[in-house]
Amino acid sequence: PLSPYYGLLGRNTPVRWSVPSQTTYLRMEDDSLSSASCPDASGLRITGDIDIRLDVKLTDWQGHDLLYRWGPGNQSWLWSMNANGTLQFFWSTTGSDFPSATSTIAPPTVARQTLRVTLQVSTGTVTFYTGPAGNADASTGWTQLGAAVVCGATSVYAGTSGVYAGGFYGSVFEAEVRS
Description:
The chain is mainly β. It is built from no helices and 13 strands. Strands 1, 3, 8, 9, 10, 11 and 13 form a seven-stranded antiparallel β-sheet that branches. It is elongated. The termini are far apart.
């Protein structure tokens, strides 16, 4: 009765209650267009072997982009999830071509996990992995997701696009792009 809301909140009034989290993350539950970005920098212009990791909690396991350096006429790489749940990695060698590899199986639809994709340019081998939540910076604890996909020797176009994370319903806890 001492609340300023006394008498204003009746039975069946929707209420949102939240408790501060101990973990910092990017929450994108309201739309599938939100994202976070990092502007272009020389350290992101990886043209050789690449290792991309994303600690994520997805609430929609259907087709969307996860993490990418992709812009009109300036494509470098794009990591996405297909409508059937498999992961797909696109890269460009010229900024306008689109070789790709698709995981042979879909990752498990657990609440939160770390996803990883690597491209070894000397053989064109793309390998997808899963790992426990909070594993993005770990060197062990990865489980290969299906068979590696071999596409033949290749390279990655450096491009000048920024890196974008998002375009899906869920939360991003950490994203890493490694050379």
